[in-house]
Design brief:
This protein is mainly α and about 450 residues long. The protein has one domain: MFS general substrate transporter like domains (Growth Hormone, Chain: A, Up-down Bundle), CATH 1.20.1250.20. The chain is about 70% helix and about 0% strand. β1 and β2 form a beta hairpin. The radius of gyration is 21 Å and the shape is globular.
Protein backbone atom coordinates (compact mmCIF):
# COMPACT_ATOMS: atom_id res chain seq x y z
CA UNK A 1 0.00 0.00 0.00
CA UNK A 2 1.04 3.61 -0.15
CA UNK A 3 2.66 5.53 2.65
CA UNK A 4 4.22 8.92 3.21
CA UNK A 5 7.56 7.75 1.79
CA UNK A 6 6.15 7.47 -1.70
CA UNK A 7 5.55 3.73 -2.09
CA UNK A 8 2.86 2.95 -4.64
CA UNK A 9 0.35 0.22 -5.30
CA UNK A 10 2.03 -0.90 -8.53
CA UNK A 11 3.62 -3.87 -6.73
CA UNK A 12 0.58 -4.71 -4.62
CA UNK A 13 -0.57 -8.03 -6.12
CA UNK A 14 -4.08 -8.17 -4.68
CA UNK A 15 -4.82 -4.56 -5.54
CA UNK A 16 -3.61 -5.12 -9.11
CA UNK A 17 -5.92 -8.12 -9.42
CA UNK A 18 -8.85 -6.16 -8.00
CA UNK A 19 -8.02 -3.26 -10.30
CA UNK A 20 -7.67 -5.51 -13.36
CA UNK A 21 -10.94 -7.30 -12.75
CA UNK A 22 -12.82 -4.06 -12.21
CA UNK A 23 -11.28 -2.55 -15.34
CA UNK A 24 -12.25 -5.45 -17.62
CA UNK A 25 -15.74 -5.50 -16.14
CA UNK A 26 -16.14 -1.76 -16.65
CA UNK A 27 -15.14 -1.96 -20.33
CA UNK A 28 -17.77 -4.60 -20.98
CA UNK A 29 -20.39 -2.73 -18.97
CA UNK A 30 -19.89 0.50 -20.88
CA UNK A 31 -20.20 -1.43 -24.13
CA UNK A 32 -23.57 -2.82 -23.07
CA UNK A 33 -24.71 0.58 -21.76
CA UNK A 34 -24.50 1.79 -25.36
CA UNK A 35 -25.59 -1.41 -27.11
CA UNK A 36 -28.76 -2.02 -25.08
CA UNK A 37 -30.18 1.49 -25.68
CA UNK A 38 -29.15 1.25 -29.35
CA UNK A 39 -31.00 -2.05 -29.66
CA UNK A 40 -34.04 -0.48 -28.02
CA UNK A 41 -33.93 2.70 -30.12
CA UNK A 42 -33.00 1.36 -33.54
CA UNK A 43 -34.21 -2.26 -33.60
CA UNK A 44 -37.17 -2.32 -31.22
CA UNK A 45 -38.38 1.23 -31.96
CA UNK A 46 -38.47 2.38 -28.34
CA UNK A 47 -40.20 5.67 -27.51
CA UNK A 48 -38.62 8.34 -25.25
CA UNK A 49 -40.73 7.03 -22.37
CA UNK A 50 -39.53 3.47 -22.97
CA UNK A 51 -35.93 4.69 -23.09
CA UNK A 52 -36.52 6.35 -19.74
CA UNK A 53 -37.88 3.08 -18.35
CA UNK A 54 -34.81 1.19 -19.61
CA UNK A 55 -32.48 3.78 -18.06
CA UNK A 56 -34.40 3.57 -14.78
CA UNK A 57 -34.23 -0.22 -14.78
CA UNK A 58 -30.42 -0.15 -14.97
CA UNK A 59 -30.14 1.68 -11.64
CA UNK A 60 -33.44 0.91 -9.88
CA UNK A 61 -31.72 -1.80 -7.84
CA UNK A 62 -29.97 0.85 -5.74
CA UNK A 63 -33.41 1.92 -4.54
CA UNK A 64 -34.84 -1.60 -4.26
CA UNK A 65 -32.01 -3.54 -2.61
CA UNK A 66 -29.33 -0.95 -1.83
CA UNK A 67 -29.84 -0.80 1.94
CA UNK A 68 -30.26 -4.54 2.60
CA UNK A 69 -27.28 -5.25 0.32
CA UNK A 70 -25.06 -3.14 2.57
CA UNK A 71 -26.25 -4.91 5.70
CA UNK A 72 -25.70 -8.31 4.04
CA UNK A 73 -22.20 -7.38 2.83
CA UNK A 74 -21.19 -6.41 6.39
CA UNK A 75 -22.11 -9.95 7.51
CA UNK A 76 -20.40 -11.92 4.71
CA UNK A 77 -16.97 -12.17 3.12
CA UNK A 78 -17.18 -9.75 0.23
CA UNK A 79 -15.04 -11.38 -2.46
CA UNK A 80 -17.18 -14.54 -2.94
CA UNK A 81 -20.28 -12.38 -3.27
CA UNK A 82 -18.55 -10.22 -5.90
CA UNK A 83 -17.55 -13.31 -7.88
CA UNK A 84 -21.15 -14.60 -7.76
CA UNK A 85 -22.40 -11.19 -8.94
CA UNK A 86 -20.05 -11.35 -11.94
CA UNK A 87 -21.34 -14.78 -12.92
CA UNK A 88 -24.97 -13.68 -12.65
CA UNK A 89 -24.31 -10.62 -14.85
CA UNK A 90 -22.54 -12.83 -17.40
CA UNK A 91 -25.58 -15.12 -17.73
CA UNK A 92 -28.04 -12.24 -17.97
CA UNK A 93 -26.15 -10.38 -20.70
CA UNK A 94 -25.52 -13.58 -22.66
CA UNK A 95 -29.28 -14.17 -22.73
CA UNK A 96 -29.69 -10.98 -24.80
CA UNK A 97 -27.29 -12.30 -27.44
CA UNK A 98 -29.09 -15.66 -27.55
CA UNK A 99 -32.49 -14.00 -27.93
CA UNK A 100 -31.09 -11.76 -30.68
CA UNK A 101 -29.72 -14.74 -32.63
CA UNK A 102 -33.09 -16.55 -32.50
CA UNK A 103 -35.11 -13.44 -33.34
CA UNK A 104 -36.86 -13.46 -29.94
CA UNK A 105 -35.48 -10.28 -28.40
CA UNK A 106 -38.13 -8.02 -26.88
CA UNK A 107 -38.13 -4.74 -25.01
CA UNK A 108 -39.42 -6.36 -21.77
CA UNK A 109 -36.42 -8.74 -21.84
CA UNK A 110 -34.04 -5.78 -22.04
CA UNK A 111 -35.76 -4.21 -19.03
CA UNK A 112 -35.57 -7.43 -17.00
CA UNK A 113 -31.89 -7.94 -17.88
CA UNK A 114 -31.12 -4.33 -16.93
CA UNK A 115 -33.03 -4.64 -13.64
CA UNK A 116 -31.56 -7.97 -12.49
CA UNK A 117 -28.11 -7.00 -13.71
CA UNK A 118 -28.45 -3.87 -11.61
CA UNK A 119 -29.15 -5.98 -8.52
CA UNK A 120 -25.92 -7.91 -9.09
CA UNK A 121 -24.07 -4.64 -9.68
CA UNK A 122 -25.26 -3.29 -6.32
CA UNK A 123 -23.66 -6.21 -4.48
CA UNK A 124 -20.49 -6.03 -6.59
CA UNK A 125 -20.01 -2.28 -6.15
CA UNK A 126 -20.73 -2.26 -2.43
CA UNK A 127 -18.34 -5.19 -2.10
CA UNK A 128 -15.35 -3.67 -3.87
CA UNK A 129 -15.72 -0.25 -2.25
CA UNK A 130 -15.95 -1.89 1.18
CA UNK A 131 -13.07 -4.29 0.50
CA UNK A 132 -10.62 -1.68 -0.80
CA UNK A 133 -9.55 -0.33 2.65
CA UNK A 134 -8.63 -3.85 3.82
CA UNK A 135 -6.65 -4.47 0.60
CA UNK A 136 -4.60 -1.24 0.40
CA UNK A 137 -4.91 0.21 3.91
CA UNK A 138 -6.39 3.61 4.62
CA UNK A 139 -3.17 5.37 3.62
CA UNK A 140 -3.54 3.98 0.10
CA UNK A 141 -7.15 5.00 -0.47
CA UNK A 142 -6.57 8.16 -2.52
CA UNK A 143 -4.10 6.38 -4.83
CA UNK A 144 -6.29 3.28 -5.03
CA UNK A 145 -9.44 5.23 -5.82
CA UNK A 146 -7.59 7.40 -8.34
CA UNK A 147 -6.38 4.29 -10.17
CA UNK A 148 -9.82 2.69 -10.10
CA UNK A 149 -11.42 5.92 -11.31
CA UNK A 150 -8.82 6.31 -14.07
CA UNK A 151 -9.62 2.96 -15.63
CA UNK A 152 -13.35 3.38 -15.04
CA UNK A 153 -13.16 6.68 -16.88
CA UNK A 154 -11.00 5.09 -19.60
CA UNK A 155 -13.59 2.34 -19.96
CA UNK A 156 -16.31 4.96 -20.33
CA UNK A 157 -14.20 6.68 -22.98
CA UNK A 158 -13.35 3.57 -25.01
CA UNK A 159 -16.49 1.52 -24.35
CA UNK A 160 -18.95 3.61 -26.40
CA UNK A 161 -16.56 3.83 -29.36
CA UNK A 162 -15.85 0.11 -29.12
CA UNK A 163 -19.53 -0.71 -28.74
CA UNK A 164 -20.62 1.49 -31.64
CA UNK A 165 -17.91 0.06 -33.87
CA UNK A 166 -18.77 -3.52 -32.96
CA UNK A 167 -22.46 -2.95 -33.67
CA UNK A 168 -21.64 -1.63 -37.13
CA UNK A 169 -18.98 -4.23 -37.97
CA UNK A 170 -20.11 -7.43 -36.30
CA UNK A 171 -23.66 -6.88 -35.06
CA UNK A 172 -25.22 -6.24 -31.68
CA UNK A 173 -25.01 -9.84 -30.51
CA UNK A 174 -21.20 -9.82 -30.72
CA UNK A 175 -21.02 -6.54 -28.83
CA UNK A 176 -23.23 -7.90 -26.05
CA UNK A 177 -21.15 -11.08 -25.81
CA UNK A 178 -18.07 -8.97 -25.13
CA UNK A 179 -19.77 -7.72 -21.99
CA UNK A 180 -20.63 -11.27 -20.91
CA UNK A 181 -17.02 -12.36 -21.43
CA UNK A 182 -15.75 -9.41 -19.41
CA UNK A 183 -17.70 -10.57 -16.36
CA UNK A 184 -16.13 -14.02 -16.62
CA UNK A 185 -12.66 -12.47 -16.76
CA UNK A 186 -13.47 -10.28 -13.76
CA UNK A 187 -14.66 -13.28 -11.72
CA UNK A 188 -11.52 -15.28 -12.59
CA UNK A 189 -9.28 -12.36 -11.62
CA UNK A 190 -10.96 -11.87 -8.24
CA UNK A 191 -10.65 -15.61 -7.56
CA UNK A 192 -6.83 -15.29 -7.82
CA UNK A 193 -6.55 -12.83 -4.94
CA UNK A 194 -4.62 -14.40 -2.07
CA UNK A 195 -4.83 -11.89 0.77
CA UNK A 196 -6.93 -12.95 3.74
CA UNK A 197 -10.24 -11.16 3.93
CA UNK A 198 -11.44 -10.22 7.43
CA UNK A 199 -14.29 -12.44 8.57
CA UNK A 200 -17.20 -10.29 9.78
CA UNK A 201 -18.33 -10.77 13.35
CA UNK A 202 -21.50 -12.86 13.58
CA UNK A 203 -24.71 -11.03 14.41
CA UNK A 204 -27.00 -13.70 15.85
CA UNK A 205 -30.56 -12.56 16.30
CA UNK A 206 -29.97 -9.03 15.02
CA UNK A 207 -32.38 -8.20 12.19
CA UNK A 208 -31.14 -6.64 8.96
CA UNK A 209 -33.43 -3.70 9.58
CA UNK A 210 -31.39 -2.68 12.63
CA UNK A 211 -28.17 -2.72 10.61
CA UNK A 212 -29.77 -0.77 7.77
CA UNK A 213 -30.99 1.95 10.13
CA UNK A 214 -27.55 2.18 11.74
CA UNK A 215 -25.93 2.77 8.37
CA UNK A 216 -28.45 5.46 7.41
CA UNK A 217 -28.07 7.21 10.77
CA UNK A 218 -24.31 7.29 10.35
CA UNK A 219 -24.53 8.89 6.90
CA UNK A 220 -27.38 11.32 7.52
CA UNK A 221 -26.07 12.29 10.95
CA UNK A 222 -22.64 13.23 9.66
CA UNK A 223 -22.44 17.01 9.02
CA UNK A 224 -19.83 16.60 6.27
CA UNK A 225 -21.22 13.50 4.56
CA UNK A 226 -24.74 14.92 4.43
CA UNK A 227 -24.05 17.79 1.97
CA UNK A 228 -21.90 15.44 -0.15
CA UNK A 229 -24.84 13.03 -0.37
CA UNK A 230 -27.33 15.75 -1.33
CA UNK A 231 -25.01 17.24 -3.97
CA UNK A 232 -24.21 13.84 -5.50
CA UNK A 233 -27.86 12.80 -5.48
CA UNK A 234 -28.89 16.00 -7.26
CA UNK A 235 -26.16 15.59 -9.90
CA UNK A 236 -27.13 11.96 -10.43
CA UNK A 237 -30.80 12.88 -10.84
CA UNK A 238 -29.98 15.07 -13.82
CA UNK A 239 -27.32 12.61 -14.94
CA UNK A 240 -30.14 10.08 -15.24
CA UNK A 241 -32.08 12.53 -17.39
CA UNK A 242 -29.03 12.94 -19.63
CA UNK A 243 -28.54 9.19 -19.95
CA UNK A 244 -32.17 8.68 -20.91
CA UNK A 245 -32.16 11.17 -23.80
CA UNK A 246 -28.57 11.48 -25.05
CA UNK A 247 -28.47 8.36 -27.26
CA UNK A 248 -31.98 9.07 -28.53
CA UNK A 249 -31.04 12.70 -29.29
CA UNK A 250 -27.94 11.65 -31.24
CA UNK A 251 -29.63 8.74 -33.03
CA UNK A 252 -32.95 10.33 -33.98
CA UNK A 253 -32.76 14.11 -33.85
CA UNK A 254 -29.26 14.27 -35.35
CA UNK A 255 -29.60 10.98 -37.32
CA UNK A 256 -26.07 9.83 -36.51
CA UNK A 257 -24.90 6.24 -37.19
CA UNK A 258 -23.95 3.99 -34.27
CA UNK A 259 -20.22 4.38 -34.84
CA UNK A 260 -20.38 8.19 -34.73
CA UNK A 261 -22.56 8.10 -31.61
CA UNK A 262 -19.96 5.94 -29.91
CA UNK A 263 -17.17 8.33 -30.89
CA UNK A 264 -19.05 11.38 -29.59
CA UNK A 265 -19.75 9.73 -26.24
CA UNK A 266 -16.18 8.47 -26.06
CA UNK A 267 -14.77 11.94 -26.77
CA UNK A 268 -16.79 13.33 -23.90
CA UNK A 269 -15.71 10.55 -21.57
CA UNK A 270 -12.03 11.38 -22.13
CA UNK A 271 -12.63 14.09 -19.53
CA UNK A 272 -12.99 11.37 -16.91
CA UNK A 273 -9.60 9.91 -17.83
CA UNK A 274 -7.95 13.33 -17.53
CA UNK A 275 -9.79 13.91 -14.25
CA UNK A 276 -8.58 10.65 -12.75
CA UNK A 277 -4.98 11.38 -13.77
CA UNK A 278 -5.05 14.85 -12.21
CA UNK A 279 -7.29 14.29 -9.17
CA UNK A 280 -4.46 13.28 -6.85
CA UNK A 281 -2.44 16.36 -7.74
CA UNK A 282 -5.40 18.68 -7.15
CA UNK A 283 -6.14 17.07 -3.78
CA UNK A 284 -2.51 17.24 -2.63
CA UNK A 285 -2.21 20.89 -3.63
CA UNK A 286 -5.55 22.29 -2.49
CA UNK A 287 -6.96 19.70 -0.07
CA UNK A 288 -10.04 17.49 -0.28
CA UNK A 289 -12.38 20.15 1.10
CA UNK A 290 -11.49 22.81 -1.45
CA UNK A 291 -11.51 20.35 -4.35
CA UNK A 292 -14.97 19.11 -3.41
CA UNK A 293 -16.37 22.64 -3.20
CA UNK A 294 -14.77 24.07 -6.36
CA UNK A 295 -14.46 21.38 -9.06
CA UNK A 296 -18.16 20.99 -9.86
CA UNK A 297 -18.96 24.75 -9.92
CA UNK A 298 -15.96 25.25 -12.22
CA UNK A 299 -17.35 22.72 -14.71
CA UNK A 300 -20.96 23.91 -14.37
CA UNK A 301 -20.99 26.78 -16.93
CA UNK A 302 -19.97 24.40 -19.73
CA UNK A 303 -23.20 22.44 -19.24
CA UNK A 304 -25.04 25.04 -21.29
CA UNK A 305 -23.33 23.58 -24.37
CA UNK A 306 -25.40 20.37 -24.16
CA UNK A 307 -28.53 21.66 -25.93
CA UNK A 308 -26.39 23.44 -28.54
CA UNK A 309 -25.28 20.12 -30.05
CA UNK A 310 -25.89 19.63 -33.75
CA UNK A 311 -24.50 17.86 -36.80
CA UNK A 312 -20.99 18.54 -38.07
CA UNK A 313 -19.13 21.07 -35.94
CA UNK A 314 -22.11 21.20 -33.56
CA UNK A 315 -21.05 17.82 -32.20
CA UNK A 316 -18.02 19.54 -30.63
CA UNK A 317 -20.29 21.49 -28.28
CA UNK A 318 -22.07 18.33 -27.13
CA UNK A 319 -18.78 16.45 -26.63
CA UNK A 320 -17.25 19.42 -24.75
CA UNK A 321 -20.13 19.48 -22.29
CA UNK A 322 -19.78 15.72 -21.74
CA UNK A 323 -16.03 16.23 -21.24
CA UNK A 324 -16.72 18.77 -18.49
CA UNK A 325 -19.30 16.51 -16.82
CA UNK A 326 -16.86 13.58 -16.83
CA UNK A 327 -13.84 15.58 -15.66
CA UNK A 328 -15.57 17.30 -12.77
CA UNK A 329 -17.40 14.16 -11.71
CA UNK A 330 -14.28 11.97 -11.56
CA UNK A 331 -12.16 14.49 -9.61
CA UNK A 332 -15.07 14.97 -7.22
CA UNK A 333 -15.54 11.20 -6.84
CA UNK A 334 -11.89 10.51 -6.02
CA UNK A 335 -12.01 13.11 -3.24
CA UNK A 336 -15.33 12.17 -1.69
CA UNK A 337 -15.04 8.37 -1.95
CA UNK A 338 -11.55 8.38 -0.40
CA UNK A 339 -12.80 10.62 2.40
CA UNK A 340 -15.80 8.50 3.32
CA UNK A 341 -13.76 5.28 3.22
CA UNK A 342 -11.06 6.77 5.43
CA UNK A 343 -13.35 7.96 8.23
CA UNK A 344 -15.75 5.02 8.40
CA UNK A 345 -15.11 2.13 10.83
CA UNK A 346 -14.62 -1.27 9.19
CA UNK A 347 -17.75 -2.77 10.67
CA UNK A 348 -19.88 -0.07 8.98
CA UNK A 349 -18.15 0.10 5.60
CA UNK A 350 -20.71 -2.01 3.75
CA UNK A 351 -23.67 -0.20 5.25
CA UNK A 352 -22.10 3.21 4.80
CA UNK A 353 -21.32 2.58 1.13
CA UNK A 354 -24.73 1.00 0.53
CA UNK A 355 -26.57 3.80 2.31
CA UNK A 356 -24.80 6.42 0.23
CA UNK A 357 -25.38 4.42 -2.96
CA UNK A 358 -29.05 4.09 -1.98
CA UNK A 359 -29.37 7.84 -1.47
CA UNK A 360 -27.31 9.09 -4.42
CA UNK A 361 -27.77 6.32 -7.00
CA UNK A 362 -31.42 6.00 -6.08
CA UNK A 363 -31.99 9.28 -7.90
CA UNK A 364 -30.67 7.82 -11.18
CA UNK A 365 -33.79 5.77 -12.03
CA UNK A 366 -35.93 8.75 -11.04
CA UNK A 367 -33.85 10.84 -13.43
CA UNK A 368 -34.31 8.26 -16.16
CA UNK A 369 -38.09 8.37 -15.77
CA UNK A 370 -38.00 12.17 -15.60
CA UNK A 371 -35.95 12.24 -18.80
CA UNK A 372 -38.49 10.02 -20.54
CA UNK A 373 -41.40 12.22 -19.45
CA UNK A 374 -39.65 15.46 -20.39
CA UNK A 375 -38.55 14.02 -23.74
CA UNK A 376 -42.18 13.22 -24.57
CA UNK A 377 -43.58 16.55 -23.31
CA UNK A 378 -41.04 19.22 -24.28
CA UNK A 379 -38.74 17.46 -26.75
CA UNK A 380 -35.20 16.14 -26.53
CA UNK A 381 -33.30 19.41 -27.00
CA UNK A 382 -35.34 21.23 -24.34
CA UNK A 383 -34.77 18.29 -22.00
CA UNK A 384 -31.03 18.71 -22.50
CA UNK A 385 -31.39 22.35 -21.41
CA UNK A 386 -33.15 21.26 -18.21
CA UNK A 387 -30.33 18.78 -17.65
CA UNK A 388 -27.69 21.48 -18.09
CA UNK A 389 -29.33 23.76 -15.52
CA UNK A 390 -29.74 20.94 -13.01
CA UNK A 391 -26.15 19.74 -13.29
CA UNK A 392 -24.80 23.27 -12.95
CA UNK A 393 -26.92 23.90 -9.83
CA UNK A 394 -26.04 20.65 -7.98
CA UNK A 395 -22.90 22.00 -6.18
CA UNK A 396 -24.94 24.67 -4.37
CA UNK A 397 -25.41 22.15 -1.55
CA UNK A 398 -21.63 21.98 -1.03
CA UNK A 399 -20.98 25.71 -1.23
CA UNK A 400 -23.58 26.34 1.48
CA UNK A 401 -22.11 23.67 3.81
CA UNK A 402 -19.23 23.78 6.38
CA UNK A 403 -17.04 22.08 3.75
CA UNK A 404 -16.18 25.45 2.24
CA UNK A 405 -14.23 26.42 5.38
CA UNK A 406 -12.01 23.33 5.44
CA UNK A 407 -8.90 22.77 3.36
CA UNK A 408 -8.57 19.12 4.35
CA UNK A 409 -11.41 16.92 5.47
CA UNK A 410 -10.83 15.06 8.77
CA UNK A 411 -9.03 11.77 8.27
CA UNK A 412 -7.83 10.98 11.80
CA UNK A 413 -11.02 9.35 13.01
CA UNK A 414 -10.79 6.00 11.27
CA UNK A 415 -12.47 4.31 14.18
CA UNK A 416 -15.56 6.42 13.68
CA UNK A 417 -15.78 7.24 17.38
CA UNK A 418 -15.15 10.97 17.20
CA UNK A 419 -17.47 13.63 15.95
CA UNK A 420 -16.12 15.69 13.05
CA UNK A 421 -14.32 18.97 13.45
CA UNK A 422 -16.62 21.97 13.49
CA UNK A 423 -15.26 25.03 11.67
CA UNK A 424 -14.89 28.14 13.82
CA UNK A 425 -15.25 31.71 12.62
CA UNK A 426 -11.53 31.83 12.01
CA UNK A 427 -11.82 28.91 9.61
CA UNK A 428 -9.93 26.48 11.87
CA UNK A 429 -11.48 23.17 12.70
CA UNK A 430 -12.40 22.48 16.32
CA UNK A 431 -12.68 18.89 17.52
CA UNK A 432 -15.75 18.04 19.52
CA UNK A 433 -15.85 15.35 22.21
CA UNK A 434 -16.68 11.73 21.41
CA UNK A 435 -20.28 10.97 20.59
CA UNK A 436 -22.33 9.29 23.33
CA UNK A 437 -22.82 5.55 23.21
CA UNK A 438 -25.65 4.26 21.14
CA UNK A 439 -25.08 6.78 18.36
CA UNK A 440 -23.62 5.79 15.04
CA UNK A 441 -20.15 7.31 14.95
CA UNK A 442 -20.30 11.01 14.20
CA UNK A 443 -22.55 13.37 16.09
CA UNK A 444 -26.00 13.53 14.54
CA UNK A 445 -26.75 17.05 15.80
CA UNK A 446 -27.67 19.36 12.93
CA UNK A 447 -25.34 22.25 12.17
CA UNK A 448 -25.79 25.18 9.82
Amino acid sequence: MTDDRGMTLWRHRDFLLLWSGETVSQVGTTVSHLVLPLLAATVLGATPWEMGVLTAAETAAFLLVGLPAGAVMDRLRRRPVMIAADLVRCALVASVAVAWWFGRLTFPQLVVVALLGGVATVFFDVGYQSMLPSVVGRAGLVEGNAKLESTRAAAQATGPALGGGLVQLAGAATAVLLDALSYLVSAATLARMRGPEPVPEPAPGRPLRTDMIEGLRYVLGHPLLRPIVVCTGTANLFGGVLTAVSVLFLARELALPAGVIGLVLAAGSVGGVVGALTAGAWIRRFGQGRVLVTVLPAAGPLMVLLPLGGTGAGLVWFATALFAVSYGGVVYNVAQVSFRQSICPDRLLGRMNASIRFLVWGTLPLGGLLGGVLGELIGLRATLLVTAVGLAAAPVWLVAAPLRRLRDLPSDAATGTLSPPRPTRSGRARREPPAPRGRAGWSSRRRR
